[in-house]
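@channel anyone free to eyeball this complex?
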Amino acid sequence: MSTLEWDRMVEEYLRQLDVALRGQPKRRRQQLVDEVRSHIAEGRALLGDPTEADIRTLLERLGTPEEIANESLIIDRATDGARRRRLWLPVGIAAALVAAGLAVGLAVGLAGGTSGRRTVRPPASTTTTTTAVAVLPTVRGQSASSAADALSAVGVHITIEQAPSTVVAQGDVVAQTPAAGAKIALGSGVTLTVSSGPPTSGG
Amino acid sequence: MWYMVAGSPGNTLAQMRRGAIEFCVLALLSERPRYGFEIAKDLADADGLVTSEGTIYPLLARLRADGVVETYWEESSQGPPRRYYRLTKDGKSALGAFVVQWRRFRDAVDGLMEGVKGA
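replying in thread with the prediction:
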């Protein structure tokens, strides 16, 4: 593969990352694009003379630009609230276990952090006025649990509805609402329709 | 039929991973300063701690803003200079506090899980 093609693929990825980071603080946005650019350069240096497949693998391992941008949003929101004091974290982990039976989306704003050396947004914004959004990944066809993982990773709540399906295997996702690619506010809900298998004859 | 799926093991583990990952980064940096690519690889090598390597960069940016890590540039023999991350004093104490609590938490959970049959 020529250097030119390589550069084009990488530049396209970085451009998408920059677009996905739109709306986040300018310095953060620039820093993330720079760091990811360096990451790719390091990977490239290790590969020597990469094939197209090598490059795709390198970019795939980074994750999608949307994933990186969503992570940045989630982390900032979390910092505004409960996670500002790092001592909350072990407590949070224990709570995650205890609360295993409860609905957990992104656990932000549970313990209101009050002090702070750094103010990203006014404290009051943690629950109300923030405009942070998540871009929904595609989870159709995945198992319910991996779909739940993918969605909770971008910071949305999940509700599952079951419906019979003759096409989709039992336990796999038939549909998601809103659809993949939709932008929704962090912490809002996504409904997954999960196949309960073929309809039973009596029903 | 409606129910919430958040209690599924996969989801719980994802939440725990999310909570623990920053301390895994601090632990790596307590050994020696590392640059971003190294941190990403080392975490990815540690049994699925990170599946999308790029997501560690937002984390590193936040740790830096929190003052638990700091960065500096160092020349590289293989290319452009690298941005290295190292622990700050605050980072060391945050890690130290976490390690103590983590061990207690881990032992408590392990103790209960040992009684589970068929695992």
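from a first look: The CA atoms of residues 35 and 84 of chain B lie 4 Å apart.
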